[in-house]
Design goal:
8-stranded antiparallel sheet, 6-stranded mixed sheet, 23 strands
């Protein structure tokens, strides 16, 4: 069936609402728009689904959500009746249609004979990850598009370990979706009837209580915040999202007395009216928080995204101004603090290890080497950090200290297997208290870390590919990179190339080829002189190719000059 036939089918299909049909009628003269919406289906990968909320197969709506849920249900039922009895747990965030989409998913799972636990109100993504493990479920779903703009929604799928689906399971779901008719092949049962029959069970605060116990148990120095509680001031914003309740509760349990929340952004609203984009890594999203921080003389500003799995920070400098910290800076500071706090309290566990992704700052290597902590590098995606934790748990050795990725995702503890802004915020505040007791701000601590280990500068550049053929052009871009390996980037020679898709590492000078030791993934990794790194990979959730620059030098100025040179070099790549 071609895209035009698909379009016409939706216009005549009885199960498609009149609202969606009216939306489709409105684009009847827009051939490119019809082609964009119906020439393909939203890609289901290890991160699930993500797209704009529109009518069509290549968008988020009740039919594509039901379709994906049927594919996931097929995977679970393939595992046997015991898997279906263990069931799934479903959560959602504050986005428009998140409640509707999550109910549709629950209806599909229940209709397929799968026990379904359903949160009575919105929850952070890490609570969903925890709940899967706590309830002993085979999997779970959180309906969210994380930090994307208001037009988007998504569908994060999880497996029994609490991490997002591994590639082999995502492939099975994707294949099942492609083999299933989006209308006639999907089973559904009325939500309320499923609740009455016990197929759907509503869950809530009991799980929250257990989750909070696990989060607060991750504090390394439980006296750090209380020691400076009279003076430490923190501003927090959930950016209209799911962190609005649990983050403040955890901070108060840790002894924080002066917590100021951004009133306008404590309101749950999927339109995110106070920001252009609810992304805490952007200083613009934290402007209201920064204004409040100046008013109340706060030490820092912390924001979490709508599903509360990522956290961004603004820190005060000695002149009173606030500056943003990158995900790499926050994570590296947390890693060093956690190691230091364990040493100071004589509680460092045996065989400690940490985990980061291959696109995350290399300063972590020096931090771990200096303290005899083993560091693992994994592919991009928190599921791979969770996989390292699982492997160590399975063989019964090693103690997980901390894991993070440059995109503002952090996790301490093994109660969940996805990034958790709730525990991250708690540790950031604990760390701020530790340094405040020493007369230092987090900005001072950052500079001290660079002076100790060397200066590091990281930046991500996004190359956006618009249009219905975006995936094809992105693929062509990656093929071109592989076919035209540069001799240097920004004046630094390319010493080796890691092609994670081919699973090879090629030394440029000798031509020697070895294995990457990691699963296949569409990533090209350039090893440059002086331990500098450039990584190229297509996004798994958006039509863009990401370029990561992981650079270092003897000074901040040297790092910045190298970054500018690299930025000039990549202008010719697209």
């Amino acid at each position: 069936m071609n895209y035009k036939e698909n379009y016409n089918r939706w216009l005549t299909e009885k199960s498609v609402s009149q609202e969606l049909k009216d939306e489709l009628i409105a684009i009847s003269n827009c051939e490119d728009e019809i082609k964009y919406r119906f020439s393909s289906y939203l890609s289901f990968g290890t991160a699930g689904l993500r797209g704009k909320m529109l009518a069509g197969t290549n968008a988020m709506n009740v039919h594509t959500v039901a379709h994906a849920s049927q594919g996931f249900a097929n995977l679970i039922n393939r595992e046997g009746t015991e898997a279906a009895k263990r069931g799934v747990v479903i959560a959602y965030d504050s986005r428009n249609n998140s409640v509707l989409f999550s109910r549709v998913a629950a209806e599909v799972f229940a209709a397929n004979g799968i026990k379904t636990y359903f949160f009575e109100s919105l929850r952070p993504t890490p609570v969903l990850s925890f709940a899967i493990r706590h309830l002993g479920c085979i999997g779970g779903v959180n309906v969210t598009a994380s930090h994307n703009p208001k037009e988007y929604n998504g569908y994060k799928a999880y497996w029994e370990d609490g991490a997002q689906l591994p590639p082999e399971h995502a492939k099975v779901v994707s294949e099942s979706i492609s083999e299933t008719d989006i209308f006639n092949g999907v089973k559904r049962i009325d939500f309320d009837k499923a609740v009455e029959s016990g197929l759907i069970e509503i869950v809530g605060t009991v799980i929250d209580d257990e989750y909070i116990k696990n989060v607060t148990a991750q504090a390394v120095d439980k006296n750090a915040v209380r020691a400076v509680a009279d003076d430490l001031r923190v501003v927090y914003t959930p950016l209209h999202g799911a962190g609005y309740r649990l983050v403040p509760e955890v901070l108060r349990l840790c002894g924080l007395k002066h917590l100021y929340t951004v009133y306008e952004q404590m309101v749950l609203d999927g339109n995110f009216p106070s920001v252009i984009s609810p992304n805490p890594e952007h200083p613009a999203a934290l402007e209201l928080g920064t204004a409040l921080a100046k008013k109340v003389d706060s030490d820092l500003v912390i924001g979490t995204d709508p599903d509360a799995d990522r956290a961004g920070v603004m820190v005060r400098r000695r002149d009173g101004s606030f500056v943003p910290m990158t995900g790499n800076q926050i994570g590296a500071l947390l890693l060093e603090y956690i190691i230091t706090a364990y040493k100071n309290t004589n509680t460092m566990p045996s065989e400690p290890y940490a985990v980061k992704t291959i696109v995350t700052s290399e300063i972590c290597t020096k931090i771990c080497e200096s303290s005899n902590v083993q560091l693992f590098n994994v592919l991009t995606g928190f599921k791979f950090i969770g996989e390292v934790i699982k492997n160590h748990d399975d063989i019964g050795n090693g103690h997980y200290l901390f894991g993070f990725e440059e995109s503002y995702g952090y996790l301490k503890g093994t109660y969940a297997r996805d990034k958790d802004s709730v525990v991250a915020v708690m540790l950031i505040v604990e760390m701020a208290a530790y340094y405040k007791a020493k007369g230092m701000s987090l900005y001072d601590a950052l500079i001290a870390m660079y002076e100790k280990y060397g200066y590091y500068n990281e930046k991500t550049v996004n190359l956006v590919f618009d249009g219905f053929d975006a995936a094809e052009r992105m693929s062509g871009f990656m093929k071109n990179i592989r076919s035209n390996i540069p001799a240097e980037i920004g004046g630094k020679k390319v010493l080796a190339v890691r092609d994670y898709l081919a699973e090879t590492v090629t030394e440029i000078a000798t031509g020697k080829v070895t294995g990457t030791g990691l699963p296949a993934s569409d990533v090209v990794y350039f090893e440059l002189e002086d331990n500098n790194v450039v990584v190229v990979r297509p996004s798994g959730t958006e039509p863009k190719v990401k370029l990561y620059f992981l650079l270092n030098g003897n000074s901040a100025k040297e790092c910045e000059e190298l970054m500018l040179a690299c930025a000039e070099a990549i202008k010719l790549w697209k």
